[in-house]
Amino acid sequence: MKVQRIDHIGVIVDDLPSVKAFFLELGLRELGEAEVEGEWVERIIGLHDVKETVAMLAVPEGEAMIELVKFHSPSDEKDIQHPLANTLGIRHIAFAIEDVEGIVAKLKKKGAELIGEIQNYENAYKLCYIRGPEGIILELAEKIK
Length: 145
Fold this sequence. Notes:
alpha+beta, globular, four-stranded mixed beta sheet, 3 helices, single chain
C-alpha cells in the first residue's frame, strides 16, 4: 500500500461563479461542473439533505485539480471566514507560476488583495500570498532563472 498522488483539493465556496472566475483568471482550466445530491454523497460526507454544485478545475499541464463546491443545502451557519495566514488548519494553496508580478496585477484588477509583499527568497524564488474571493489565500511561487 502506498499513496500514489494528491488527486485534488476541495474548497467550499458560497459564490461559485466568482471563485471559479478567479481560478480561471489565474490560469487553471475547467474540467466540468455538475449537480450532486443523494444518499451516496450524504453517506460519504456525513451530512443530510445534501444538494451541491461541484466545479472541477485543473492546472494547464499536470494532474493537480481543485474541486470547488457550493452547498445549496445544508448551509454553513458560520458564513465566510477570513482567517489570518497563521490560523491553525489548512490555510493556503501554493502554485508554481511564471511572472508573479504579472499574475498579481491581473488578479488585483479582479479584486484580489496582495497580503504582504512579493519577496525574493534567496535568489531562488519570488514568493507572495494573495487573497482572492471568499478569503481564499494563494501562495504564488516563481522560480528565478
